[in-house]
Design brief:
It contains eleven helices and ten strands. With 316 residues, it is an alpha/beta fold. The strands form two sheets. A seven-stranded mixed beta sheet has the order 6-5-4-7-8-10-9, sandwiched between helices. Helix 2 crosses helix 4 and helix 2 packs across helix 5.
């Protein structure tokens, strides 16, 4: 079965038939790949039903605490800014480059400031706590799971029920919007961009982190690649597709590149799914391996495991 790409309308071609190697939801899904050079996304055809997705999310990790570092908020904020803004230099420093890149994009790659940042897909609010501690003066979240919203509110974190396509906020109300591994789960990514544009103030920024279909890991591991995550990932992006969506919906793109920050982890879990042997490593050995994988991929233009993307709503 082939079809037009739901994002750009170009013809698609068969890519792979996938199962859920990571969370065990039943079934298999045929993924297509858009043939357009200015899009190139992957997507399941037919798209999973709401009932299939409900089953697939029933044992999912989404609403567990996102953890992160144990660093004080201000130190984390400084590393975040360094990792996002000085990537070309930082990536050459052993361990420090990887750590700064890791922290930077967990917090959206944005400089903390006096203003409101909105986390779309906030879960129980764990990332919002880190954003607040890093220097954002106002934080709020949107989350489709009422149970996660209840947990966030119990921790005195401002999270409301909603989705990327229907954000319960007024026009021109936010200084930044974060979608950390969210846009690939959204049924209508274009509508999510429109909503982000609507709620952002002029000059506000949209930050996205999402799997990269052109990554080295996808090429190496095929259907076992962690970034597929069938059937929950409904659109797996390219840099070109995010650029197209942003410009179509009125944004100015300020950062659009791949990141190798998760290269070692993706390689490990994809290899485990494929049945490759894995020797448990100590903390220092894992850190060294993460740094080695990061620097090996960091020099590539678009082959890292994730896309890190920032766009700005222009001033009128």
């Amino acid at each position: 079965m082939t079809s037009a790409c739901p994002l750009c309308g170009a013809p698609s071609k068969n890519l792979a038939v996938l199962v859920d190697h990571f969370f065990g939801s039943p079934g298999e899904w045929a993924y297509q790949r858009c043939t357009s050079a200015v899009c190139g996304v992957a997507f399941p055809l037919p798209a999973p039903t709401d009932a299939e997705l409900a089953t697939a999310y029933s044992t999912y990790y989404t609403h567990e605490d996102s953890g992160g570092t144990s660093l004080p908020g201000r130190i984390e904020a400084h590393l975040s800014t360094l990792g996002a803004r000085a990537y070309g230099k930082m990536r050459h420093f052993p361990v420090i480059g990887w750590l700064a890149e890791q922290i930077a994009w967990e917090l959206g790659g944005l400089k903390p400031r006096d203003g409101l940042i909105v986390d779309i897909g906030a879960g129980d609010g764990a990332r919002l706590k880190r954003l607040r501690h890093s220097g954002w003066t106002q934080v709020a979240g949107v989350e489709p799971d009422p149970q996660a919203v209840k947990a966030a509110r119990a921790a005195s974190i401002d999270v409301n029920v909603g989705s990327a396509e229907a954000v319960p906020m007024g026009d021109n109300s936010a200084d930044a919007v974060l979608m950390h591994h969210v846009i690939e789960h959204v049924r209508d990514p274009r509508k999510a961009f429109v909503e982000a544009h609507r709620i952002l103030k002029p000059g506000g920024e949209l930050s996205i982190v999402t799997p990269n279909i052109n990554s080295i890991g996808r090429e190496r591991w095929g259907g076992f690649w962690r970034g597929f995550e069938a059937p929950r990932h409904l659109t797996i992006f390219t840099l070109a597709a995010l650029d197209m969506l942003a410009r179509d919906t009125g944004f100015e793109v300020t950062c659009n590149r791949s990141s190798a920050r998760s290269a070692a982890w993706v390689d490990e879990v994809s290899g485990q799914a494929a049945g490759a042997t894995s020797i448990p490593l100590g903390r220092l050995a894992r850190l060294r391996r993460a740094d080695k994988a990061f620097r090996a991929q960091a020099g590539t233009s678009d082959r890292g495991e994730e896309i890190v993307f920032v766009a700005r709503k222009p001033h009128v």
